Amino acid sequence: MTGKPEPTLHDYPLSMVHAMCTSAPAEAADLLERIGATRAEAEKAEKRWWFLDPTFELRTLAEYISAWGAPDSESVHPDTDGRVRYARWNLSFWPGLQIELTEVRRANMFREFVRRPDAPQPRLRNLSDLMPWSCTLRELDDSEFGPLDHIDGVGAIGDLSAFLAIDPDSGRERAYWANFDWSLRQYVEPAPAHYVWPLGER
């Protein structure tokens, strides 16, 4: 026993909540209250995972499985330069979602929220359906709002994607920006005036 904290599956989503205290403050506050944690504890978990503690630096799926236990689902798909491995774990923080880790050629790891296969799919028809945490990036892209125009981000905090929707005030179609943390939608805002929709008419 080293006495160091272990990178548990509880601590990992807690680390992800801290950024959402800014991007979806009401939802994050409700979640922290439900699980009996504080924003300071979420910030401490974030620093352990992403900034400070090498104990929490897991590089491969094998290391995550060793730390977290067997995933709820796992698959391997061929790739042009090797294999792509996927593993999903259920999250008690977000009962309808899973965290999916993707390992590409044993060198790159990607993380994103995905819907559990047995969970109901969100109904995404107008802007009022796009509440914080209501959908994942994949679900928005596959909805009638898609296809999305990726603006910024690398699959972590503060990713931006644009989509078209009817403005409830004017009744006209306009562009909006959706903010995602780990592919979970946080908030939507009107696209700035300088943004030009590049994908043509739908």
Key traits:
4-stranded antiparallel beta sheet, 202 residues, 30% strand, alpha+beta, globular
Q: Helix amount, in percent?
A: 10-25%
Cα-atom radius of gyration: 18 Å
Q: Strand fraction band?
A: 25-35%
Low-pLDDT parts are none
**Quaternary structure state of the chains depicted:** single chain
How are the strands of the biggest sheet laid out side by side?
Answer: 1-2-3-4
Mind summarizing the main beta sheet?
A: 4 strands, antiparallel
Helical stretch count?
5
**Number of distinct beta strands:** 8
Helix and strand run: HHHHEEEEHEEEE
Spatial gap, N to C terminus: 59 Å
Structural class: alpha+beta
Descriptive notes:
The chain contains 5 helices and 8 strands. The mean pLDDT is 88. It has 202 residues and is of the alpha+beta class. Strand 5 (149-152) and strand 6 (159-166) form a beta hairpin. Helices cover 25% and strands 30% of the residues. The strands form 2 sheets. A 4-stranded antiparallel beta sheet has the order 1-2-3-4, with no helix packed on it. The chain has a 4-stranded antiparallel beta sheet with strand order 5-6-7-8. Helix 1 (11-23) runs antiparallel to helix 2 (25-35).
